[in-house]
Amino acid sequence: MLRSMITAANTMAQLGQQLNVISNNIANSNTTGFKRRETNFGELLAQQFTNLPNDKATRLTPNGVRYGVGARLAETNLVLAQGALTKTDRALDVALAKEGQFFRVLVQGENGAQEIGYTRSGAFYLTPSAENPNELMLVTSDGHPVLDENNAPILLPEGFKNITISNNGTITAVASDGRVMRRANIGITTILRPQLLQSVGDNIFTLPDLNALNVNEADVAVNMIGNLRNQISMTQGALEQSNVDLGTELTDMMITERSYQLNARAISLSDQMLGLINGIRSS
């Protein structure tokens, strides 16, 4: 009975983590550029018992009996499937139309130092630059500076008439007389190993310390510069929606809740059987 209770309790803890992942997906179903996560389960440590009778005719299995101790959440994978593009006709709304490509932004790390983050959300805004009041900085909806191909914040002069963003990510500020006031290339990175990305909030990811993992950066992320910018596919006046399918998420939630309920019932029945055993002994 104790074994069955331990097995059920271990599995319930992992199912609770799966519910957290599903709930996060549902909560961000309307978040621009959000990428859902999916979970995979694996078996916990199992024990092999072979001390059964030597008579093969009485053995339950040829190799004995294998007892497990529940399931574990083996991994949580980031799904980079393309979300639907919604037209907004807003000049600073930009959508990436290729999977695996991310905008580079500047974020504050855990130790207070600034580091490069990656996001698919292209809802950009302009805010006055702290260093030069005559310039405007391109930022995300949460105020993170958007970086150019040289990892410098993108600054645009005041007084422009309109902004155009080309298919390969070149942003141009044009004056009322048609003169180009400023031109910059938005920093785009292709992530080759998305499962290394770590969420830091605000729909932004960062990469871990690749040196500690003994991983070459070129095998993980490629900055789209030079001729590589021809591989960028960007649409101005549109936003990429999340790739969350509410129908799938709600179905997975019901299945997980049923599994949680089943394991809770197993603990309840095991407890009742232990109570019966204790009653027999006391009598």
UniProtKB/TrEMBL annotation:
GO BP terms in the entry: bacterial-type flagellum-dependent swarming motility
Residues passing through the membrane, by range: none
Cellular localisation: Bacterial flagellum basal body
All residue ranges annotated as the Flagellar basal-body/hook protein C-terminal domain in the record: 236-278
Entry GO terms, CC: bacterial-type flagellum basal body
Segments forming domain Flagellar hook protein FlgE/F/G-like D1: 102-173
Flagellar basal body rod protein N-terminal domain: residues covered: 7-35
Keyword Hydrolase on entry: no
Pfam families: Flg_bb_rod, Flg_bbr_C, LlgE_F_G_D1
InterPro entries: Flag_bb_rod_N, Flagellar_basal_body_rod_CS, Flagellar_FlgE/F/G, Flg_bb/hook_C_dom, FlgE/F/G-like, LlgE_F_G-like_D1
Matching PROSITE patterns: FLAGELLA_BB_ROD
Keyword Membrane in record: no
Keywords carried by this UniProt record: Bacterial flagellum
Highest taxon of the lineage: Bacteria
PANTHER family in UniProt: FLAGELLAR BASAL-BODY ROD PROTEIN FLGG, FLAGELLAR PROTEIN
Family according to the record: Belongs to the flagella basal body rod proteins family.
Full protein name: Uncharacterized protein
